[in-house]
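pinned: reference chain
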Amino acid sequence: MSPTHVFLGADGKALTWEELDKLWRPVRDAANLKDFRWHDLRHTCASVLAQSGASLIEIAAVLGHRSISVTAKYSHLVQGAAVTGSDKLNEKLSNATPSV
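pinned: its structure tokens
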């Protein structure tokens, strides 16, 4: 079975928030990131997935969300991005409709 957490200690157990934050701060400071929180990485992940064409359902699965409405808040969709699902729907409907 795969671990359910990304960051594990040497003992294989999930790091606590305090342990993770203790490791994160020096990395953040070394990268000279200002006003950047650990949680901002989740927003970035969702945004990049959305901009790459992932569906909200796919993004929700990656982030572990049960509610699409929560995922929509994380996923900063690109204004004016093409909606691709309608092409697939149109193709399916065209193939399913008998010719008159």
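why pinned: The radius of gyration is 20 Å. The mean pLDDT is 79.
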